[in-house]
Amino acid sequence: MDITIKNLEHRYQPNTPFERVALDGINLSIRSGSFVSIIGHTGSGKSTLVQHLNGLLKPISGSIQIGEKVIRSSEKAKQLKELRRRVGIVFQYPEHQLFEETIEKDIIFGPMNFGVSEEEAKKKAREVIKLVGLPEDYLNRSPFDLSGGQMRRVAIAGVLAMEPRVIVLDEPTAGLDPRGKVEIMNLFYQLHSAKGLTTILVTHSMEDAALYSDEIIVMDQGKVFHKGTPVEVFKDPVQLRGLGLDVPETVEFVLKLEEKFGKRLPRDVFTVEEAANVAVSLIRKEGEE
Amino acid sequence: MKDLISVHGVHFRYDEESDWTLNNVSLSVYPGEWLAIVGHNGSGKSTLAKLLNGLLIPEKGEVVVEGYNSRDENSIWEIRRRVGIVFQNPDNQFVGTSVMDDVAFGLENNGIEREEMIRRIKASIQKVKMENFLDQEPHHLSGGQKQRVAIAGILALKPSIVILDEATSMLDPMGRKEVLETMRELNKQEGITVISITHDLEEAAKADRVLVMKAGKVHAEGTPEDIFKQSGMLLDIGLDLPFAVKLQHQMNKQGLHLSSLHLTQEEMVDDLWTLRSKT
Ligand SMILES: Nc1ncnc2c1ncn2[C@@H]1O[C@H](COP(=O)(O)OP(=O)(O)OP(=O)(O)O)[C@@H](O)[C@H]1O
Ligand SMILES: Nc1ncnc2c1ncn2[C@@H]1O[C@H](COP(=O)(O)OP(=O)(O)OP(=O)(O)O)[C@@H](O)[C@H]1O
Ligand SMILES: [Mg+2]
Ligand SMILES: [Mg+2]
């Protein structure tokens, strides 16, 4: 489903002394089936933006079109049910997503709410709990008696069980252990490619944004600052740092080499292998000179 | 060196019928050090943190903080005053209805006099750059802003030991650098002991000492160099290696060998430079 956002504005607590502009004049289009990352400083409006994608937040003005559906400020919750089935969001803090007394009930809630039979939903629960790296016997446990990373995994399982067409991930790997981070990102990427999902990743990991995205959206103070491919976005380290961001560690390494050796090197380097290649060929060339 | 905290033979579980969550854990924390604790999800890091400040009490074994044993009810207050925790989920930590009140709350509870209180609130909120949000309700902040305020709340209390439980996981790259730099200054200049529970191995590589937890036990302990040269062990238990180490392994595969194992990019680049002058 293509997503088109026009002149979106959002203010929290409007018309009170606490009013705060969180989004201002956002215009974006996201192609169906693409993988898009959103990066930006703390408080730049990323979570506010993505919560508009399934109607959790309503615009003060402007519109969001997802497939055929157009959301405006006047939208009623009832009209959004179909949208919520299509667009799944993994929240920034998993605690905000978990509410049932067992993990199983938590995971089957979404699918059953949208008409899947209990039996079918339970089968799905057993499938997704394994996908996120937790043992099946966790299904009977309370989601609140878990470690931070385990809660994160359950929250992800709940969204996967809904089989959304658009998956929105708000810092999905915060709190995961290093292996978990890699496994879960690979899982998202694999689902993305295999099922043609539209994937929107909010992240402070410049590495993940560089590795997985077709396009990256850079936010600054409630506005879209820039949109481009990873190569385009990570071209200008000084500007990024000014926005509270940075380049991926692979690019940082290349920049350090450039400085030390006084040479211009390829900067579109986003994997460890590629970074090693740059260093190895640099040393070999220097040897020949 | 004399222990600041000693943990001896600690066993803990959340209910009597289940297996041990912490199974015979012993460790020391030394004054003024920066100790990183790493480990897979569910290995017991946050549970350990709560035992270190007396929020949880061991079923067997002992936790002693500057001479105060957490089993002794009269000691609990003394322990909590010394050990401040920034929790993994900041929402669990907020009590005030504004950022200002929230930071003030802990100070009031500690009987800090008014002028000193105002000074500390200002200073700590400034340290985390949240001066523009004094009146905002903490629960209505962005994810990273919440973490900043949670850190300010603990800094204002001036504990001698700060435990950061993944306290910077939602900060943007520059914000994380700045906050860790602030903590490092407090650690170096004011001698505050820092225990940092983290999945960020770059951060762990900069610690004085690293403790590795696995399934409720202390699995390994040592300097970052000691720990990160055990790559097989780390990968086996669900962890990974800092970027510089991974990069070096990859260069080794391509026949390029550096003089020793480097944990930072700076050291690596320097070493590559020397290598070039030799070839
Ligand atoms: N419920 C709320 N009420 C009032 N203001 C809010 C609320 N939620 C967020 N804000 C404010 O809106 C702005 C944007 O917040 P948002 O959560 O979208 O940022 P973000 O880019 O997701 O940041 P982070 O990286 O820290 O998660 C921030 O200044 C924040 O303080
Ligand atoms: N309140 C609780 N009641 C019962 N069991 C719990 C509770 N909190 C944690 N546990 C269990 O205790 C074990 C250790 O949890 P802990 O939170 O200490 O792990 P952790 O190392 O901090 O993990 P993470 O990296 O995911 O934060 C886990 O298996 C978890 O499921
Ligand atoms: Mg956010
Ligand atoms: Mg934890």
Automatic annotation (TrEMBL), chain A:
Gene3D superfamilies: P-loop containing nucleotide triphosphate hydrolases. Residues 3-246 form the ABC transporter domain. ATP-binding (A) component of a common energy-coupling factor (ECF) ABC-transporter complex. One of its GO terms (molecular function) is cobalt ion transmembrane transporter activity. SMART domains: AAA. It comes from Exobacillus caeni. It is a peripheral membrane protein. One of its GO terms (cellular component) is ATP-binding cassette (ABC) transporter complex. Signal peptide: none annotated. This is Energy-coupling factor transporter ATP-binding protein EcfA2. It is an enzyme of class 7 (translocase). Belongs to the ABC transporter superfamily. Energy-coupling factor EcfA family. Its main location: membrane. Forms a stable energy-coupling factor (ECF) transporter complex composed of 2 membrane-embedded substrate-binding proteins (S component), 2 ATP-binding proteins (A component) and 2 transmembrane proteins (T component). Keywords: ATP-binding, Cell membrane, Membrane, Nucleotide-binding, Translocase, Transport.
UniProtKB/TrEMBL annotation, chain B:
It is a peripheral membrane protein. PANTHER family: ENERGY-COUPLING FACTOR TRANSPORTER ATP-BINDING PROTEIN ECFA1, HEAVY METAL TRANSPORTER. Residues 5-240 form the ABC transporter domain. It comes from the Bacteria. PROSITE patterns: ABC_TRANSPORTER_1 (PS00211), ABC_TRANSPORTER_2 (PS50893). SMART domains: AAA. This is Energy-coupling factor ABC transporter ATP-binding protein. The keyword Translocase applies. SUPFAM superfamilies: P-loop containing nucleoside triphosphate hydrolases (SSF52540). Keywords: ATP-binding, Cell membrane, Membrane, Nucleotide-binding, Translocase, Transport. One of its GO terms (molecular function) is cobalt ion transmembrane transporter activity. Belongs to the ABC transporter superfamily.
